[in-house]
Specification:
The complex is a heterodimer. Helices cover 13% and strands 40% of the residues of chain A. The N and C termini of chain A lie far apart (36 Å). By secondary structure, chain A is mainly beta. Chain B is of the alpha+beta class. Chain B has 19 helices and 18 strands. In chain B, the strands form four sheets. Chain B has a six-stranded mixed beta sheet with strand order 15-8-9-18-17-16. In chain B, strand 17 and strand 18 form a beta hairpin. In chain B, helix 3 runs antiparallel to helix 4 and helix 10 packs parallel to helix 11. Chain B starts with a helix and ends with a helix. The chains are: A mainly beta, B alpha+beta. Chains A and B meet through strand 4 and strand 5 of A and helix 7, strand 17, strand 18 and helix 19 of B.
Chain lengths: 178, 556
């Protein structure tokens, strides 16, 4: 791994603009040219749960929003934090923390909901904070470590200067909830 | 062929019929202008009607096939030079097209040629053959004598605006509805805020009034958008005619199929969702409800049985009944089966005993042996109907027959609901199942607390506190009873208070939430709050003995 993020970490609170940022990263580099070679590059949104860092492919992230009211649903699976309203739509909010043995999040100012669009469905993922968008070559991604992958959702592991980054499969996150 | 494939074929038929109509009408109008139509144009038209005839016979729509045949025949005669296609022929053909386009617009085909078609069909058959066409029915061609001034009748007949139809994709209807949903929430927020300020000044009051007018006209718009999605249930119900016929033949039974209320409309999404539960019910009726002709004769019944599918609208719900005049459900068999499965039947009332047939345990493969108990697939029927916010009700008379009645909301997208408070939470309760609300006085409250029943009129209704159902803290102020009624049951739901009655957008729950007991969907209020919509059907049926969370733990 040569560089973790050529543009440096984002300022805190810039979560809402992360996707625009990712677009910019994509446009300003030769991601497409890379995709045609044997070693394609892709972009990942990096978020933190407690002290662990996880990445989700930018292609499945619709947007990143601040945490509004999350309404619990009596009788729903424990991994469902509740429902939240985003511009007229009601989205389920998943809590990944409980899956890796952490207590449910007490949201701070930095907490975000990462809105995933997977297989025609839209769901929110509650995270402690979103830190950056990184560009990764396929050759830099190793197999997921056994212990670091929440309930089999990990599809890859990258070791960065700041520590390990577990890349997650959004489809598995969504389907394992059921 | 499964029902959805069949539906696709029906849809495709009507859609291609509309295309043929458009082509044919365009060509005919061109011919009307030409002195002598070029032969290739005649050929095009003959092909169009030939295709229509073929499609219609394939679908079993003999009525349309017969008409298309007459029209095709005209062109055959024209090609061989027996007939000149001119003004008179074209006007008969256009009249024929008119009949078919009525059918295409309705989306269903009658079983028999309507009497009103006879004149047009006779004219198509006899034109140019020297046979005088039958006199036109009174009123079809009024005021045509030369020099007569145009009468109102004439104007009405020829200048009346024709209903025209345009094809719109389902995706477009869905996205219209989605935008309406967003606007609905935004407008109710705006309206709440405007009303809150209305006392402030004259300007604010005028603004609030303007907002109310916007909301009112938006509701009209929303109704139109919902109405555009309604389709007749006949499209689903009529496919069971062939199924019943084929099953009857293969089982050596004689069954008449009666369809009524096919013109009742429901949302297009509901029509599709209904086909599977109805398929189960119709199959069950044929397989298990209807006796053999010999058995029927021995029982003094007519050899031919009758299966009726009847639909009707009842306020904002639609009822669809599957009725057979077969042997009825044998309660003794249900009891026996239940005991085998370890279910206690002692002390169950008749309704609860009958409802056992909807349990998954009764729907296993060995349910086949439960011939007149008819459990097969009924758990699926019930689950599907409840997912649509509806109920299933069964009644049966031994030897006389059985009726399954599905009650579902007209639309899945929008509903009227009471906004309730219980356990410091707000819930929405669809009004389709609300019979009335009753304030519980001290004396009645005593009975509720002691026996768990509410004396209501001449009945004692099972009473359950909403807060208890959802494991919420009790406030001790649950002195309002909402009487729920549906699926042949009644129950009192105790709440703290009713905070409003509103029209709300129903948002289905994402599959990630599973099926939270007692909750059917969610909605977004104007202030951005999310409120759960209660599943009245499920609450009506659930035992009032345990709260939902407790039951969930038992189950897992």
């Amino acid at each position: 791994v040569k560089e973790e993020n050529p543009l440096g970490p984002l300022p805190p609170g810039a979560g809402g603009d992360l996707l625009a940022f990712a677009d910019w990263v994509g446009a300003s580099s030769d991601v497409d040219a890379g995709a045609q070679t044997a070693d394609p590059e892709s972009l990942f949104v990096v978020f933190v749960l407690d002290r662990d860092r996880f990445g989700l492919p930018v292609s499945s992230v619709r947007e990143i929003v601040r945490v509004g009211e999350i309404r619990p649903v009596p009788g729903a699976p424990s991994l469902i934090r509740g429902l939240t309203g985003v511009r007229g739509a009601i989205l389920p909010v998943l809590e990944l923390r409980t899956r890796i043995g952490l207590a449910p999040l007490v949201p701070t100012d930095r907490a975000r909901i990462v809105i995933l669009e997977v297989a025609g469905r839209t769901l929110g993922l509650l995270v402690d904070r979103v830190t950056e968008v990184v560009k990764m070559r396929a050759s830099e991604i190793g197999p997921p470590g056994a212990g670091s992958s929440p309930a089999g959702c990990g599809i890859g592991l990258v070791t960065l200067a700041a520590g390990p980054l577990v890349l997650l499969d959004p489809e598995r996150i969504v389907s394992r909830q059921e | 062929m499964n029902p959805s494939e069949f539906q696709e074929i029906v849809d495709e038929y009507f859609s291609s019929t509309r295309e043929i109509l458009e082509t044919a009408e365009g060509l005919l109008l061109q011919i009307e202008k030409d002195e002598s139509p070029p032969p290739e144009r005649l050929l095009d038209l003959r092909r169009a009607f030939h295709t229509l005839k073929g499609n219609s016979s394939m679908m079993g729509f003999g009525v349309v096939a017969d008409l298309a045949h007459l029209m095709e025949d005209l062109f055959r005669r024209a090609e061989s030079g027996d007939l000149a296609v001119g003004g008179e022929v074209v006007s008969h053909l256009l009249a024929g097209l008119g009949l078919i386009s009525e059918i295409a617009a309705a989306g269903r085909v009658p079983d028999e040629t309507p009497a009103s078609w006879r004149g047009v069909m006779a004219a198509l058959r006899d034109v140019g053959t020297g046979v005088a066409p039958p006199p036109a029915p009174a009123g079809t061609a009024p005021g045509l004598s030369p020099d007569a001034p145009p009468t109102d009748d004439l104007k009405r007949h020829y200048l009346a605006p024709r209903t025209r139809f345009v094809r719109v994709s389902e995706a477009a209807l869905d996205s219209l509805l989605e935008h309406c949903g967003e606007l609905h929430v935004l407008l109710s927020g705006l309206s709440d805020r405007a009303l809150g300020r209305a006392n402030g000044s004259e300007v604010a009051a005028a603004e609030a009034e303007a907002v109310e007018r916007i909301v009112a006209s938006f509701h009209l718009l929303e109704d139109e958008v919902l109405a555009a999605r309604l389709v007749p249930v006949g499209t689903v119900l009529s496919r069971f005619r062939m199924l019943v016929r084929d099953l009857a033949v293969s089982q050596g039974k004689a069954i008449d199929f009666v369809l009524s209320g096919g013109e009742t409309t429901v949302d297009k999404d509901l029509v599709d969702a209904l086909s599977e539960p109805l398929l189960h019910l119709v199959r069950n009726a044929v397989d298990h409800g209807i006796e053999t002709p010999a058995e029927r004769e021995a029982a003094g019944k007519p050899r031919a049985a009758t299966i009726t599918l009847a639909a009707r609208q009842a306020s904002n719900m639609v009822e669809i009944a599957v009725v057979d005049d077969g042997r009825g459900i044998d309660r003794a068999r249900i009891s026996r089966k239940a005991r085998e499965k370890g279910i206690r039947v002692e002390g169950l009332d008749d309704r609860s005993l009958l409802d056992l047939i909807f349990l998954p345990a009764f729907s296993t493969r060995d349910g086949v042996t439960l011939v007149s108990g008819r459990g097969i697939g009924l758990d699926i029927v019930k689950a599907n109907v409840e997912r649509l916010g509806g109920t299933v009700f069964v009644q049966t008379l031994p030897g006389r027959g059985t009726e399954f009645r599905l009650t579902i909301p007209l639309t899945l997208a929008l509903g009227h609901a009471l906004l309730l408070e219980a356990g410091r939470e707000t819930f929405a309760l669809p009004t389709g199942f609300v019979a009335e609300t009753v304030r519980i006085d001290g004396e009645a409250m005593g009975v509720v607390e002691r026996d768990g029943v509410l004396p209501w009129r001449n009945e004692r209704l099972p009473a359950v506190a909403a807060a208890r159902l959802f494991g919420l803290p009790r406030t001790g102020r649950e002195d309002l009873a909402v009487i729920l009624a549906g699926g042949g049951r009644r129950k009192a739901l105790l709440v703290d208070r009713v905070v409003g009655y509103l029209r709300l957008v129903i948002k289905p729950l994402d599959p990630a939430l599973g099926r939270p007991p007692g909750i059917s969907a969610a909605t977004l209020l104007g202030d951005g709050r999310i409120v759960m919509i209660l599943d009245a059907g499920e609450i009506l049926e659930s035992s009032s003995a345990a709260s939902y969370p407790a039951r969930r733990q038992e189950a897992s």
